[in-house]
Amino acid sequence: MRAAVVAALLPWLSACSAPSYLGEFTEGVTALFDLGDVMRPAGREAEQIAQLAWVLFIGAAILWLLVMALFVYITKQNPRPLSRRWAEALIIGGGGIFPVIVLGILLVWTLPLMPAQRMPGDGLTIRVTGKQWWWKVEYLDANGDEANTVVSANEIRLPKGRRTEIVLAADRVIHSFWIPALAGKTDMIPGQTTRMALEPTKTGTFRGVCAEFCGESHALMAFDAVVLEEPAFKAWLAAEREPADAPRTAAERRGAEVFLTQGCGACHAVRGTPAQAQIGPDLTHFGSRLTLGAGSFDNRSAERQSWVAHAAAMKPGARMPAYASLSDEDLAALDRYLEGLK
Amino acid sequence: MMRYLLPIGVLAVLGALGGIAVVAFGLYNVSASSGHLPGVSWVLNTTFRNSVRLRAPEPESVPDLSIPGYAALGARHYDSACKMCHGAPGEPRSATVLSMVPQPPPLASAVSHWQPNELFWIVRHGIKMSGMPAWPAERDDDVWPVVAFLAQAEDLSVEGYRELAGLPQSPGISPGMSPGMAPGTADAADTGDPIASLAASCVACHGSVDEAPVSPAAPRLDILSAEYMASSLQAYREGRRFSGMMEQAASDLSDQQITALADHFTAPGGAQAARTLAAPPEDIAAIVLGGTGETQTPACAACHGPWPQPLPAGNPPLAGQNRLYLADQMKAFKASTRGGTDRAYLMHRMIDDLDSATIEALAAYYASAR
């Protein structure tokens, strides 16, 4: 893999004057060193950040090479004292004027990027609340009607090509909301709301994380950001707004009964059933989510059953109590029911 | 100076050797029949009194002891657990107890000269090497009914005691046998039904379908399911649920007796259905029903009702339960001094965020069911 990437880079190295090669170079380096989502931007803000990073990296590399070359020249090639005139020119020009010009250009270029990173959204607003250790996600009604809010959790869906306003809050401690492929991070602070906007430029599933230490399961506080084409997103949001499907099979019906009689409804809501609590993640469409336990595990049967029986063993400190007392049949039926909540 | 050092050293070594010999060779006579050497009783008694006065909680920490039936509840526990050694008005003690050293003081003199806070400490912690046991549970609140009884026990008449303890006025034909006593004794022979006579000792404190519990500190049983009562009695018997009174009462019940008692107290047809709760008041509605996102407390209703679906029989319904009992249980959960069945751990997560005003409001709401 690595050899192939180096081979792909060689033509560029031999003809590095053409600007069209710049993109190929940055992509090649990103793949070669596995630089991650920050350098593989899929959103407007992240593209600016990546571009800024590349200019700084490449510019710093060029400056470093120039300084090293000068160093070799004056110590090996021409080790004589400079004339006073040259010495002053080097110190004043290289130590004062040149940095002022370079930093001045960077300042003029980057200052406008700061408001660009915080431009307001132009469409949907999503409110994300950081909890220990999961994300409450609410798709707000366009007319500001709280009753029409669509509540979900631990997964964020976004339309491609639209700027979605993200309003951030926190429950007990400070968290930080970060989807590296889409934008920089923004802190979530109890008692305050912070905001940002996300404008994805590519469809796909991107990993989001909590980027501020928030307790023992901070490392297991993640989520998926799924970017869809706008029509697909609208169809998804309309489906997400609907109450849960009624159980279809006998096993699902048994599972629904377990859910509603074993106390699950004390914390979780499944819209369309008596379970309406907002303490834990809303599970109305849990079966359609990609992950379990806030981006920590695959949403598969074995993981789901293990989660119900021993949540805190999988995620230290999780407030979900262990339901180890459920029989295997009840656990399997509950799993069928949860999987059916598409 | 130096010339005193050697004799002092020799005396110290001899004294130490003497002390070791007393311990190692059993030279001290520990027999109760020989009594104490002169002065030892005074040293022990004085130490006892001063130690209790030093360690007893502040008098201000004594709760309201005039709660209805509090003293009667305490008297009924006293009758089953304490009377054996301390006797009761009109009931002589056994010759064996009278041969103990120290001899347990009879009820009236045991409580004289002590204040309620000191009585609490003695009952809660017991007295080392005296035969006075500690309270069987790591829990303070269920000691206070006994203190309420002891606080008025000094001048108690025979009739007064028997009324408080729920005994018939003429000794010898009591239907309410002591919970700690095994069935099959003289009382059981009266009715011929060992469970009915055992159940009578439960009724003495908990009441029945027709009769409220002797004190609101005791739970009514007619709204509970057989499953819940049986698992609770097992938890008391095995020391998993903590209560000095109930661990004493359940300590020698067999599995069969527990099942039979649980069935005996289950109201025919289930009384739970007859009790309905109004909508909870606004300030606790979120906690009871879990509807809004402001609270961190899981919804009570999902396990304890009101819930549209029938809930598992193992969950205790709260509707109609005594307010004082409910509040005491929630406080005990919060203090981790309740214990319970194998699902009690769930409650700790629920209750940790509640302040005492909310606990009182929740207890009042569930007690308000009609």
Automatic annotation (TrEMBL), chain B:
The keyword rRNA-binding is annotated on this UniProt entry: no
Alphabetized Pfam families for the sequence: Cytochrome_CBB3
InterPro entries, per the entry: Cyt_c-like_dom, Cytochrome_c_Oxidase_Subunit
Keywords recorded for this protein, A-Z: Electron transport, Heme, Iron, Metal-binding, Transport
Domain Cytochrome c: from-to ranges: 69-154, 187-370
Protein name, UniProt field: C-type cytochrome
Native organism: Pseudohoeflea coraliihabitans
